[in-house]
Design a protein that fits this description.
Layout (H helix, E strand, L loop, with lengths): L9 E2 L5 E2 L11 E5 L4 H12 L3 E5 L3 H13 L3 E4 L7 H15 L4 E4 L15 H29 L3 E8 L10 H21 L4 E8 L5 H9 L3 H6 L10 H12 L10 E4 L3 H4 L4
Helix pairs in contact: 1-8, 3-4, 4-5
């Protein structure tokens, strides 16, 4: 049985005041968020809930996902944790079906799950690294869009999908070759899907994300401390983004305030794209 419940205000560990003390940007919507167990995904889960959405959370780490669901629900929000791997089409279908069963539909999605590693030169990179990078970053977005679109079409109301790309989707940033290739592909899927479904009311956009504090980035910096300065040197704003700053952009693109925005690669990158020479 689907549910439509009001929420009350509270403050969660990500610093958001959660609930419907005001009409949120996503009031009454149902949102699916992948990569939700940490970083940008977890910040997005709490922000989407604060803005009034019922959030369906997907990630592989079940315990972390369950804890986030408990936190959101404890603060008066609506959330459902459904563990799974975006690289597995069956897992993604199961999460979409759970959204429909619990909350009655799917209005928006933030396909944020990603995977990156620090690798040597292209010719020294193991094929298994290439395969996993493509599976999560490209096939994961493919699986999500493929299963999300039919539900949005069936509703007759359309919807909004946001995919997480990267500055590595615009040019060679120094990240591993598989990652650069994968994030370029995310932009291709985004633009093609926007063109295919625009007349049916489904908007599809991508975030071109700059270096953002996350477990992956923190691990990379611990491994190679000089990376932090290398990450921020090309930016106008000389710092890494906080996960909530990326989440704010995703919320806006999913909301009616972005009603005439589709097929875009929206930079949230501290100004790197204002200076970088990109094709």
């Amino acid at each position: 049985m689907s549910e439509r419940e009001s929420t009350r205000e509270s403050t969660n560990s990500y610093g958001y005041r959660q609930g419907q003390g005001r009409e949120g940007l996503l009031a009454g919507r149902v949102a699916m968020i992948t990569g939700a167990s940490s970083g940008i995904g977890a910040a997005a889960a709490t922000l989407f809930a604060r803005e009034g959405a019922a959030v369906v959370l997907m990630a592989r780490r079940a315990e972390r996902l369950a804890a986030l669901e408990k936190e959101i629900v404890g603060g008066g929000g609506r959330a459902l944790a459904v563990p799974g791997d975006v690289a597995d089409s069956g897992d993604v279908r199961r999460v979409v079906e759970a959204a429909v069963e619990r909350f009655g539909g799917l209005d928006c999605a933030f396909n944020n799950a990603g995977y990156a590693t620090i690798e040597p030169s292209l010719h020294e990179t193991d094929d298994a690294v290439f395969d996993r990078t493509m599976d999560v970053n490209v096939r994961g977005v493919w699986n999500c869009v493929k299963h999300q679109v039919p539900v949005m079409l069936a509703s007759g109301k359309g919807g909004s999908i946001v995919n997480t790309s990267s500055t590595a989707g615009r040019y060679a940033t120094g990240a591993s070759v598989p990652y650069v290739a994968a994030k370029h592909a995310v932009l291709g899927i985004t633009r093609a899907a926007a063109a295919e479904y625009g007349e049916q009311g489904i908007r599809v956009n991508a975030l071109v994300v700059g270096t953002t504090r996350s477990e992956m980035i923190d691990a990379a910096v611990r491994q190679v401390p000089a990376l932090e300065q290398a990450f921020i040197a090309p930016q106008i704003q000389k710092r890494m983004a906080e996960p909530r700053e990326i989440a704010e952009a995703a919320v806006w693109l999913c909301s009616d305030r972005a009603s005439f925005v589709t097929g875009v690669a929206m930079p949230v990158d501290g100004g790197i794209s204002a200076q970088a020479k990109v094709g």
